[in-house]
Amino acid sequence: MNRSTNYGKFFRHPLTSLIQNPLLYPVQLYTIDKRLHFKLDREEQKMAHEDCIFCKIIDGDIPSAKVYEDDKVYAFLDISQVTKGHTLVIPKEHTKNIYETPPETAKELFSRIPVIANAIRDAYQPLGINLLNNNEPVAEQSVFHLHVHLIPRYGDGDGYTPNWITHTEDYTSDDLQAVAKAINEQIKH
Ligand code: 5GP
Ligand code: ZN
């Protein structure tokens, strides 16, 4: 039996469909484009992970002052020590920022934060603590591995000055309802 005849019974090469049916051109080109982008995204993620200083800290390739570690989460002192005990809490699994974080990773990360915050309080008796998570450069993210800052507060002039401008007067309650609705409509689980 002719080999190519037998092969053709089970398999139709995608190029054959493409050449024979020009109506499929846009669909096929879209699929190829999507596949190419998916591959590029994965390559970029791999590169990002290799270049990531926080992944290197987790792996012990860059030294850090470790505050806490388990199989999912690592916490260490921020080198800038905005206030004494300023700690960064990070997931061991590399994720760029909050937008790209799977809910399970967020759950694991945030479940450790009260424990670490209480440990900082017991060690240094701050008057309070700020949690801060920056996402994207406009929001001052400078290291692209998700992290939550725990910044103990000791009073005015302790080193941390959040700049918070209120715009209460600019919004009616209808405006607030409209904004809330716009966000709510985009909720995806
Ligand atoms: P972001 O600006 O992205 O919210 O915060 C990144 C934080 O990482 C900064 O506060 C910076 O001080 C800290 N950081 C950057 N490089 C290192 C490092 O090599 N070791 C430690 N411990 N902290 C770092
Ligand atoms: Zn990383």
Please give a structural write-up.
The chain is 43% helix and 13% strand. It has helices at residues 3-10, 14-20, 25-51, 53-58, 103-124, 173-184; strands at residues 66-69, 73-77, 87-91, 128-132, 148-153. A five-stranded antiparallel beta sheet has the order 1-2-3-5-4, with helices on one face. The chain binds guanosine-5'-monophosphate and zinc ion. Guanosine-5'-monophosphate (5GP) is lined by residues 53, 62, 64, 76-80, 134, 140-143. Guanosine-5'-monophosphate binds at residues 53, 62, 64, 76-80, 134, 140-143. A motif (Histidine triad motif) lies at residues 145-149. GO terms for molecular function: methyltransferase activity.
SSE arrangement:
Elements: H1 3-10, H2 14-20, H3 25-51, H4 53-58, E1 66-69, E2 73-77, E3 87-91, H5 103-124, E4 128-132, E5 148-153, H6 173-184
Antiparallel strand pairs: 1-2, 2-3, 3-5, 4-5
Bound molecules: guanosine-5'-monophosphate and zinc ion.
**Which residues sit in consecutive blocks of at least 5 with pLDDT less than 50?**
1-19, 26-40
Shape: globular
Helix content range of the residues, please? 40-55%
Q: Could you tell me which ligands this complex binds, including any ions or cofactors?
A: guanosine-5'-monophosphate, zinc ion
The Rg value, from CA coordinates, equals: 25 Å
H/E series: HHHHEEEHEEH
Most strands sheet: 5 strands, antiparallel
Distance between the termini: 54 Å
If helices are DSSP runs of H or I spanning 4 or more residues, what is the number of helices?
Answer: 6
| Percent of sequence in beta strands | 5-15%
Output mean pLDDT: 84
Structural class estimated from helices and strands: alpha+beta
Number of strands: 5
Strand order of the largest sheet: 1-2-3-5-4
